[in-house]
Amino acid sequence: MLSGMKANHVNVSWDATKQKWLVRIEAGSEVIRRYCGQSKNADEDALRKAAAQTVADEGYAFDAGEIGVLR
């Protein structure tokens, strides 16, 4: 785990091909992509919470209020 690392940008977008929400974490030159199991109609709070958990699971810190949701 990369404890103490801070992500620069985090956003969540719908991947129509996979029919899942994609969490994209940017940390420096590294980009991490992970899918989450929220429903297509999930509200922004649920998506931010799922993204924040994904960011934490990857060992990064990021303010959940700054997570962008792209619909």
Question: Can you give a write-up of this model?
Answer:
The chain is of the alpha/beta class and 71 residues long. It has one domain. It is built from one helix and six strands, in the order ββββαββ. It has one helix at residues 44-57; strands spanning 5-6, 9-15, 20-27, 30-36, 60-61, 68-70. Strands 4-3-2-6 form a four-stranded mixed β-sheet, covered by helices on one side. A two-stranded parallel sheet has the order 1-5.
In short:
The protein is α/β, with parallel strands linked by helices and 71 residues long. It has one helix and six strands. The chain has one domain (5-63).
Write the layout of secondary structure elements.
Blueprint: E1 5-6, E2 9-15, E3 20-27, E4 30-36, H1 44-57, E5 60-61, E6 68-70
Parallel strand pairs: 1-5, 2-6
Antiparallel strand pairs: 2-3, 3-4
